[in-house]
């Protein structure tokens, strides 16, 4: 059984879906929520589900190894990034090689890399007049959005789409697929 730590920076809608999925699916359990923000919805979600959480300090995260002690304390075996915005340092990618995954709101390798998240991605997709977009679930390495692709799902992009309407389509794909892909790994 996977002992999952979810790293999240924002509202935590994917976190919520994953938590609910693994309450019913015994292939994994969410044992820790890690965030870089004290006040956000993902911390509230952790509290609502009685899941321990840890707040990261950027310097300790990038230069220190104290996070490994926290992950070890909770016997974490698998890390899921769900809207986590910081680059994952080498000590984590080395320790959890092949056991850290991320979801990206576009079809990589297009529209990936530093600064390409959320509405920035959706605006870029629309400006390029793409006819489809989607999600990419991928392994994490030391570079933004360059890890091996595990899964992609697509949606149509219409001329009438706005960044907000495209975001809704992408969120629906994330909620439909992310937890199932995690369970299958």
Give the strand tally.
Answer: 7
CATH topology: Rossmann fold
Low-pLDDT segments, ≥5 res: none
CATH architecture: 3-Layer(aba) Sandwich
Helix count from the secondary structure assignment: 7
Q: What is the beta-strand fraction?
A: 15-25%
Strands of the widest sheet, in order across it, are: 3-2-1-4-5-6-7
Biggest sheet features: 7 strands, mixed
Mean pLDDT: 95
| CA(first)-CA(last) distance | 11 Å
Order of helices and strands: EHEHEHHEHEHEEH
What is the overall silhouette?
globular
CATH superfamily: Formyl transferase, N-terminal domain
> What is the count of distinct domains?
1
Determine the structural class based on helices, strands and strand pairing.
Answer: alpha/beta
Q: In which range does the helix fraction lie?
A: 25-40%
Taking all Cα atoms into account, the compactness measure Rg is: 16 Å
């Amino acid at each position: 059984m996977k002992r999952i730590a979810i790293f999240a920076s924002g509202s935590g809608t994917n976190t919520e879906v994953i938590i609910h999925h693994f309450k019913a699916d015994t292939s994994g359990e969410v044992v820790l929520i890690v965030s870089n923000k004290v006040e956000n919805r993902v911390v509230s979600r952790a509290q609502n589900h009685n899941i321990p959480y840890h707040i990261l300090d950027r310097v300790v995260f990038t230069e220190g190894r104290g996070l490994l002690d926290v992950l070890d304390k909770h016997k974490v075996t698998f890390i899921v990034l769900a809207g986590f915005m910081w680059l994952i340092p080498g000590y984590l990618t080395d320790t959890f090689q092949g056991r850290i995954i991320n979801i990206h709101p576009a079809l990589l390798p297009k529209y990936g890399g530093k600064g390409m998240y959320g509405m920035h991605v959706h605006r870029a997709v629309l400006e390029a007049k793409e006819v489809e977009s989607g999600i990419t679930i991928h392994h994490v390495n030391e570079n933004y959005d360059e890890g091996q692709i595990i899964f992609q799902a697509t949606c149509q992009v219409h001329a009438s789409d706005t960044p907000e309407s495209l975001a809704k389509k992408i969120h629906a794909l994330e909620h439909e697929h992310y937890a199932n892909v995690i369970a299958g790994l």
